[in-house]
């Protein structure tokens, strides 16, 4: 491959070098054989690849240690028999614990407040209803005490209602 390219590079010199009368190419006839000797060292760029490993460890190490600070939830109230009824409601889910509700809030864009409560509504469950809001509220806005008649004829009520606001 390299040998072939050397031949191609030297080929014009040979072709134009034969007629010495040619004015434009006559100057290249002399140094032509000397340049062919310097072609060999050029196709060895493998030594320059050694440079790349030096940049690998210095860039990854600082970024992996920068762990995001988890938001802090401050308890607004605990164990009320009423749920929040106020603006800023985003969505809700069912969870096992208040900690699960905190994780849910962190997964919802704009959530800064949670209200986790046990809605006793005829279904046999200890799951907590986890309602999340984009605005923090307080106990004066916990006015939902249930009172809805369920399909089984029972009337629901709220217990163990916890509220937390992101600091
Ligand atoms: C990166 O690796 C080189 C060679 O292993 C080492 O000398 C250097 O201290 C390392 N730099 C960092 C920031 O770890
Ligand atoms: C939670 O509230 C209920 C109803 O008011 C009460 O019976 C219970 O003792 C309270 N639990 C705690 C841990 O305060
Ligand atoms: C409610 O569920 C628990 C366990 O899942 C069970 O032991 C209990 O008997 C159930 N109570 C009713 C009223 O269905
Ligand atoms: C509770 O929230 C209401 C409505 O935002 C506000 O008017 C009231 O001052 C708050 N109470 C406390 C104790 O922060
Ligand atoms: C009330 O919630 C707390 C956690 O906030 C939990 O430990 C407790 O078992 C719950 N009580 C009832 C009766 O659901």
From TrEMBL:
Residues covered by region (Disordered): 22-65
Q: Is Signal a UniProt keyword of this protein?
A: yes
Please give the name of this protein. Apple domain-containing protein
Segment forming the signal sequence: 1-17
List the biased-composition ranges (Low complexity): 33-54
Polar residues compositional bias: what residue ranges? 55-65
User: What UniProt keywords are attached to this protein's entry?
Assistant: Signal
Native organism is: Dendrothele bispora (strain CBS 962.96)
């Amino acid at each position: 491959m390299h040998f072939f390219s050397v031949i191609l590079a030297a080929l014009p010199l040979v072709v134009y070098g034969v007629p010495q009368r040619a004015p434009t190419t006559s100057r290249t006839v002399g140094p032509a054989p000397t340049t062919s000797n310097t072609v060999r060292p050029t196709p060895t760029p493998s030594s320059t690849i050694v440079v790349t490993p030096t940049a690998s460890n210095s860039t990854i190490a600082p970024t992996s240690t920068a762990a995001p600070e988890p938001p802090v939830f401050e308890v607004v109230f605990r164990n009320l028999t009423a749920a929040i009824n106020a603006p800023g409601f985003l969505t809700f889910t069912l969870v096992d614990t208040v900690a699960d509700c905190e994780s849910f809030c962190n997964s919802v864009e704009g959530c800064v407040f949670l209200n986790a409560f046990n809605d006793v509504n005829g279904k046999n469950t200890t799951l907590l209803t986890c309602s999340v809001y984009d605005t923090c509220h307080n106990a004066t806005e916990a006015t939902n005490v249930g009172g809805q008649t369920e399909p089984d004829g029972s009337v629901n009520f709220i217990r163990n209602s916890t509220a937390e606001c992101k600091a």
